[in-house]
Task: structure prediction
Amino acid sequence: MQGIWTTERIRAAEDRLLAVTPDGELMRRAAFGLATHTAALLAGRTSGVSGRRAVLLVGSGNNGGDALWAGAFLRRRNVAVTAVLLKPERAHGAGLAALRRSGGRVVSAEDGPQWIDRADVVVDGIVGISARGPLRPDAAALVERASAPIVAVDLPSGVDPDTGAVDGPAVRAALTVTFGALKPVHALAPDACGEVVLVDIGLRPELGEPDLVRLDSPDVAAAWPVPGPGDDKYSQGVVGIAAGSATYPGAAVLAAGSAVRATSGLVRYAGHAADVVRSRWPEIVATGSVRDAGRVQAWAVGPGIGTGQEGRDVLRHVLGQGVPVCADADATTIIARSPEVLDARDPGTPLVLTPHAGEFSRLMGEAPGADRVAAARDAARRYDAVVLLKGHCTVVAAPDGRVAVNTPRGSWLATAGSGDVLTGLLGALLAAGLDPWLAAASAAHVHALAGSLAAGGVPTSASALVTAIPDALRALRS
Ligand SMILES: NC(=O)C1=CN([C@@H]2O[C@H](COP(=O)(O)OP(=O)(O)OC[C@H]3O[C@@H](n4cnc5c(N)ncnc54)[C@H](OP(=O)(O)O)[C@@H]3O)[C@@H](O)[C@H]2O)[C@@H](O)CC1
Ligand SMILES: Nc1ncnc2c1ncn2[C@@H]1O[C@H](COP(=O)(O)OP(=O)(O)O)[C@@H](O)[C@H]1O
Ligand SMILES: [K+]
Result:
């Protein structure tokens, strides 16, 4: 599990470490790592390091200091280094002196473009964890000019460090070299960060518990249910799927099929698409109504059930069964419009809500906004439920404050029905008895992995996603 810390916590930890570390030592550690990874990128992209040209974009803080020191280290490998100072009077003094001593060139922002045009790599030391708002116009003009790959120092400038939000011009890096710990931007703005490498500067002991986490494949593999010798189809947890309708059976087929592929326990289906589901998935026990579905250990409810009286009855019924419920799609809309359906819920039984941004707006009365982590946390508290906020990056918040972020591999999951597949996965994990927050984060992880395997670089479909679930689980377990 990777820990992620907000900039406030990072700053506090840095202050504690700075107090017991010789002056300038942390920055040199950071910069040495930055130089090493920048050289590796140069070697990979240009088949060499010596004689290559690096341009540093240097802002007024320590982020610029990191870039300047890294420039001095790159000089040792005979890289031609030019620093473009955005605010010459406020550039980091020691870093600037080190670069000058090493034979680096220093130019003003006006002279920057001619050097940027000939660069093999551009190092973005404009702003780091003290960033506020989008890039300012002088910095934006230089960044726009760059056609060489950009290495972001700590984080891509112009992107909010704590929310990953981009609200104007921002750096789009090929590589981000960060120091001490991952910050939210690295999980929430993958496209701006490019590849992310973490350089150890000895900060970990000062950090305490992370604010957010990101599950690694081994975490998900360890959590995913595996049947034992004593198991049978019931003991692994039976999931009930209440989805789809006679007119729209697709959601039922996708959610139920996804549950079939997620675990080896039994899947029940209840709804108007029973015939279609049965013909597509003969292993499913399908009935016409949740009332005669038989016993389950969790319900996944919502996709395609409609938001009318019948949908409300279905939702109220499953909420009253005393088992965990994953409420998706129409079920979230019903909850938003008729919150009294939640009265049917036994307060002790887990509920997982899986809204996309539109459904979230209905549930909360406002859009998630720039701070999607805070938004998901608020919703989790308000509904006393695990909230999985869908989007490019998926945020999973528990009412106790735990938050997991799933960083996608591309955007191929933006395809019709892909949410139904997630619901099936999640329902199966809840039935298997996983902690609901872990179930939601694990389902999102496998969903994204299956999406990238199904796509393989070209458009895919929700059906292909269901087919790819075993490949994703195999990849996890290997
Ligand atoms: N502390 C440590 O031990 C270590 C710290 N380390 C490094 O320090 C970095 C943090 O450095 P920092 O705190 O000096 O500020 P930093 O992020 O460089 O910002 C500088 C100034 O930029 C400005 N600015 C703000 N927004 C802007 C925008 N959108 N566009 C343009 N400019 C903008 C704003 O100044 P203003 O112009 O508003 O007065 C702000 O004060 C950290 O990310 C890591 O790289 C590492 O070396 C490891 C050890
Ligand atoms: N741009 C994107 N990049 C990555 N994943 C995405 C993107 N857009 C949507 N997704 C994912 O695809 C799924 C879509 O779910 P949903 O909106 O419920 O669609 P549907 O109702 O068609 O099933 C969610 O898991 C979401 O996180
Ligand atoms: K930066």
Residues 53 and 119 are 5 Å apart (CA to CA). The mean pLDDT is 97.
